[in-house]
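Open question from group meeting: does this chain pack into something compact, or does most of it stay loose? Before anyone orders reagents, we agreed to write out a predicted structure and look at it together. Recording both the input and the output here so the notebook holds the full record.
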Amino acid sequence: MKAIDEPGFWDASALVPLCLRQGASSKVQRYLEIYPIVVWWSTEVEMCSAFARERRMENISAADHDWAVARLRLLKAHWSEVLPSNDMRAAAIGLLEKYPLRSADSLQLAAALAWSQGRPANRIFLCADKRLNAAAGSEGFTVLSTNTEGSPTNRRD
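Structure tokens returned:
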């Protein structure tokens, strides 16, 4: 598959399988070949948190951890980042009133809405979190679930 002109907004949960071997890794790799990456400002921190948690739990070796961090650096060199703003913070607070999201997820969705300039129709949102996928779909994004257990309505996978 070949990348298209229109990027997708990638939640950290969608990117982690590109760095650590997981059930969704093959599926996410196919999406990467099609949708250039746009992320929220703190995505790198979220991904490093996931790698460190897997290492602490002894689910991955030190070498796997180091490889994941190196892969993250490679991905980061090619992604576009949505920077924080006061408007985005206000939007995230509003999303918390509308949807059962965690604070970091409301910031992810607010960043995606800022990236889409408030016009999410026909914009791709990639994520493994069911609640965040549902909220993104309700906001009008085309959601591509990277969860191997399925995805909510508005899915396209």
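Observations to bring back to the group:
The chain is about 50% helix and 10% strand.
The first helix runs from residue 12 to 15.
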